[in-house]
């Protein structure tokens, strides 16, 4: 993967997660503490190092809250512990980064730095306020220990990621702070599909845990999370969901098509689960199959390929965020 792709992937995933964490405590500006929490949840090497050091999301949230309270107490301000609310980032707007987080992102890309999550974490460890260092001490570790683990545990080779020739296939990985059986329970329950599949508003004829060959009827979501209506053509409202494959607590695959618009493309999604430090690692593949009536010529296909790849990447990013949000 190129440096530019690393930077884009890192900025996208960390931004979404950090701003979700800010929304839990009623903030619209994400600061270094929210960035740290996002790194704990990162699917990249930085996240694996933090979790391998025994840092869980709940413990990291606790340490951040205690550090904020300690900083206020040092200037004579005493506040009671406030119970964070649920994540409302997807239902609200107006989120931004603080200036010092923007500086961290800029520094992580300069010179020979990669701009990935590990580079961001290194810059965060050196952030001059010392807040993250104090948070790490509360978690039983230190910046030096984390730096050493970043060096010692660095992957020697980057795994090959399949690349689609037409831009209609994409791959993504996700860390979920929950055990495999809990994640599987979510994915294998058809009625819970609206909790994690952004396009689905409801499933009406499910009959229990999914089995290969099951065919379900779903309906497209007609409102955004913020309540604003979505314009959905009548032919696109009904969705045929077919279960293509199931391996209990290991992998599941679906196809999504629109029976009232037979010329529309069919979407395939496969999710594999594996246990990892602090939770579950998901590997996801999404592919679109063009219907014959929607085939395009080779020249136009080449011109549109970057757009297809971007759209596929965005769809997978939204899917990753939605699944992760369920367990946070």
Q: Give, in order, the helices and strands.
A: HEHHHEHHHHEHHEEEEEEH
Shape descriptor reads globular
How would you state the average pLDDT, rounded? 88
- Per DSSP E runs of 2 or more residues, the count of β-strands stands at 9
DSSP helix fraction: 40-55%
- Assembly category: single chain
Q: What's the structural domain tally?
A: 2
CATH fold name of the largest domain: Alpha-D-Glucose-1,6-Bisphosphate, Chain A, domain 4
Placed side by side, the strands forming the largest sheet appear as: 3-9-8-7-6-5-4
CATH architecture of the largest domain: 2-Layer Sandwich
3D architecture notes:
This is SRPBCC domain-containing protein. It comes from Microbacterium wangchenii. InterPro entries: Clp_N_dom_sf (IPR036628), Polyketide_cyclase/dehydratase (IPR019587), START-like_dom_sf (IPR023393). With 328 residues, this protein is of the alpha+beta class. The chain is 41% helix and 19% strand. The chain has helices at residues 3-24, 32-40, 45-52, 57-73, 99-107, 117-125, 131-138, 143-152, 180-187, 193-196, 298-326, and strands at residues 29-30, 96-97, 169-176, 200-203, 215-220, 238-247, 251-257, 266-276, 279-289. A 7-stranded antiparallel β-sheet has the order 3-9-8-7-6-5-4. The radius of gyration is 21 Å and the shape is globular. The protein contains 11 helices and 9 strands. Mean pLDDT is 88; it is low at 157-165. It has 2 domains: 3-152, Orthogonal Bundle (Double Clp-N motif), CATH 1.10.1780.10; 169-326, 2-Layer Sandwich (Alpha-D-Glucose-1,6-Bisphosphate, Chain A, domain 4), CATH 3.30.530. Helix 1 packs across helix 2, helix 2 runs antiparallel to helix 4 (57-73) and helix 4 crosses helix 7 (131-138).
